[in-house]
Amino acid sequence: ATGAANHPLPCSVGRPKGTNQRRRPASLSVRASSDANTVTLLDYGAGNVRSVRNAIRHLGFNIRDVRSPEDILAADRLVFPGVGAFGSAMDVLNRTGMADALREYIRRDRPFLGICLGLQLLFDSSEENGPVSGLGVIPGVVRRFDSSEGLIVPHIGWNALQITKDTQLLQGADGHHVYFVHSYHALPSDANRDWISSTCNYGESFISSISMGNIEAVQFHPEKSGATGLSIFEKFLSPNSSGAKVVIKSDFIVCTSFYLFLFNIKFTLMFAMQAPAHRKASKLAKRVIACLDVRSNDNGDLVVTKGDQYDVRDHSSSKEVRNLGKPVELASQYYIDGADEVSFLNITGFRAFPLGDLPMLEVCLSFITIKYFHYLPLSGEVTGLYNW
Fold first, then answer.
1. Residue 111, preceding bond cis, omega within 30 degrees?
2. What is the pLDDT of residue 342?
3. What residue stretches are annotated with the Glutamine amidotransferase domain (predicted)?
4. Which one, out of 72, 117, 217, 247, has a CA that is 20 to 30 A from the CA of 225?
5. What does the pLDDT average to over 308-329?
């Protein structure tokens, strides 16, 4: 992986003949680096990509951040976890010269993984606050889900992949559920069908991943998709590996609410029937959600607790806050045991300005996400409004 591919991938693959392409600048010419343990990450500052960073580091790789267009062209492997709005992202990419660098990197068929908006930006354009022109790599227009007939938008939750092309990246993922959160999507067409490696159904069939040569992109969030997502990451980062072991959920449905004897923590279990690989899921899966009440004790330590009507203090002379465990350890254990989500409820209701509750935010955003690769809701009472 130290030079341009023997068969460069043109950005016009799958396009009708006669379609004009943007002319790439001749000045963009940088030799790729050769650090096998380093992954280049394109984080253009539009949002939080902490979970992507943690997933990459969890698999034993170092991260090199893109600072200039030359960093893109020098990358051995490039991960682009696009976040935010389509138009804003393209504004940044065009203004910094990174859009042309991305087109050139893809034209050379260098290893590329786009995530969520990182997939959408590869298309011709988007209707989001537009039309807005994209990178123009894949034919098609990114459109909003149609909510006129009751479809809930955005599409949030676990949905199943329907594999349409054999690829190493998605090997073993057919029928498995991955985590989506998006309002816009690209539709399959005759012009882009050669790119499509999987589809998903949410009101209609949409493109959930593409693959062409060394170019890969997914609409879902592998960094929030548990063992299946980590396996996908590992297959991109270490193409010669077999990938992480995928945990398959049991084939039964349970919906109940009870107190867990060991921790006396109330939470709701919702197990979804795992669809066999030959069946095609057409709706979101139900999921296991562990709900943990958390607050700071008198020493300032964040603990998981439980009480009656938020009375969480021992009925003893000490009157200490009941400590049922540390949030990091419990969240990690629930993840290992198969929970799809862990929801933290700050029962003190963010008594001050939420960003001032540093123990809560530091634990949830810094420590838990290092070991936890699912969606992580964080809630508490709204106590006031603040101007930004």
1. no
2. 78
3. 41-236
4. 72
5. 81
How far, in Å, CA of 122 to CA of 14, rounded? 13
How many CB atoms are located within 10 Å of the residue 76 CB?
18
In this structure, are residues 115 and 221 in contact, taking their beta carbons and an 8 Å threshold? yes
Q: Residue 362: pLDDT band by 50, 70, 90 thresholds?
A: low
pTM: 0.70
CB count within 10 Å of CB 16 equals 9
pLDDT mean over 60-87: 95
Q: Sign of torsion, CA 172 252 291 315? A: negative
Per-residue CA distances from 31 to 1, 13, 22, 72, 84 (Å): 11, 24, 22, 10, 31
What kind of fold does domain 38-237 have according to CATH? Rossmann fold (3.40.50)
| Residue keyed to tokens 């859009």 | 99
Separation CA 225–CA 242 (nearest Å): 18
Domain boundaries, the chain: 38-237, 255-380
Token pair 């963010």 is found at: 350
Region 237-251: mean pLDDT is 51
**Residues catalogued as catalytic:** 116, 221, 223
With cut-offs at 50, 70 and 90, classify the pLDDT of residue 303. Answer: confident
Tell me the two tokens of residue 93.
Answer: 């990419």
CA angle 246, 374, 197 (to 5 degrees): 55
Question: CA 201, 239, 285 angle in degrees (round to 5)?
Answer: 25
The three-state secondary structure class of 245 is coil
Neighbours of 379 (CB within 10 A): 13
In whole angstroms, give the CA distance from residue 201 to residue 114: 20
Q: Are 195 and 9 in contact (CB under 8 A)?
A: no
Angle in degrees, CA 86, 188, 234, rounded to 5: 70
Q: Is the pLDDT of residue 99 over 90?
A: yes
Q: How confident is the model at residue 193 (pLDDT cuts 50, 70, 90)?
A: very high
Distance CA 4, CA 31 (A): 8
Q: Angle CA(41)–CA(333)–CA(345) in degrees, nearest 5?
A: 85
As a residue count, the chain comes to 388
From CA 232, how far away is CA 211, in angstroms rounded? 13
